Each structure stands twice: as C-alpha cells, then as structure tokens.
Sequence to fold (217 residues):
Amino acid sequence: MKFFVDSADVAAIAELNDLGMADGVTTNPSIILQSGRDILEVTKEICSIVSGPVSAEVVAPGAEEMIAEGRKLAGIAPNIAVKVPLTWDGLKACKVLSGEGHMVNVTLCFSVNQALIAAKAGATFISPFIGRLDDINLDGMDLIADIRQVYDNYGFETQILAASVRNVNHVAQCALVGADVMTAPPAVIRSLAHHVLTDKGLDQFMKDWAKTGQKIL
Ligand code: E4P
Fold:
C-alpha cells in the first residue's frame, strides 16, 4: 500500500520522504489554509521534494472553470494530480483532464456508486473519506472494502486512495482490505511506529544494559 502525506507542511513531508514514507502528497483547501502559504508556491515546493503524485484541488463550482484551474495546477509540475470534487461538474472536469493525460483525484467520495462513476469518468484516484463517515456513525472501512470489490469485479484501474484517515487502526484496516493508497497526516504516519510493548521492552533492555557496564562505541 502506498503512503501519501495529507499535509502541506514541507518540513514534515521532507522528513517522511527521506524515510521512504511519502509516495505522494494530498492537499485540499483546508490544508492550504492551515499552511498559511500561497497554493501555487507551496505546491511547487512539495513537488520538488516528492516524486510521486501531489494532489492539488480545484475550487471553481462549474466544469469549465474547474478544467481551467486544473490545467493551471497541472502546469506546476509533471507529478501534479488534479483534485476535483465528486459532483457532476467534477466528473465532467475529470473526463476532460484525464483525457488530456493529467492524473485526476476525485475527492469527497462517500458511496460505492460515486466511486463507480468516477472510475467510468477516467479517475486516476478515487478518495473515499473514512473518518468523515465514522464521524456520522457509519463504517468508513466498509466503503473501502465495497469499492475494492466493485473495482475488482470489473477490472477498473482507478486506484483507491483511502482518505480522512485519522488513526493507526484505519491504516491497518486499509492495508487489510486492499486500498491501493492511504493518505494520512504526518502525525498519524509517525504514530505507526508506536507500541506500548516496544517502549516497555526497550526500557527494560536499557536498564539491563546499564548494569553490564559495557559500551559498544
Ligand atoms: C485528502 O485527500 C482529504 O482531503 C483528507 O484526507 C480529509 O481528511 P479529514 O476528513 O480529516 O479532513
């Protein structure tokens, strides 16, 4: 499963990239707001760090303007994936932009039917939002599993990009049900290394090591 970093924090992205844990990056208007930076500038900087797909989202409501915005965003770097919302206009933009050879990430997906029509419109990635479904007492992971089954039933090549990943259990479940990609904030990716028994075991090893009086270096 590929790891995308759901952030515009360039320092955090660079650290994860150096560790081989940034196969790509996803941003959205809220993430750009959080960064306090200009969308074109920060996206260009991210594209210079990460060689995989970097999603940059259009904000226009209509297909024609989305297409124009998408072309401008795609001009930032060859590894841009234009992110469009899962609306009828977004699907029109997806069809045109993917037809021009751009990667397209169709976002804000909350149902299997939405994922099905995004694939038919030529989406490179479909982004089902796990956490936001969990927030309203639905099971976001069921949606990932259902999309996996439908895409496999018909051989769709659209990659399932599990989004709105909020915790380590989401990551493990995404890998188990076969998401192609998961995108998570840097803090969630870092916390994948944590285990209480690792901390406990290391603490005991360090205490015993001190008692040996030895040094390795
Ligand atoms: C990524 O593409 C999404 O925009 C992001 O994962 C949404 O996450 P959130 O629901 O935690 O805001």
Observations:
- The CA atoms of residues 21 and 200 lie 26 Å apart.
- The mean pLDDT is 98.
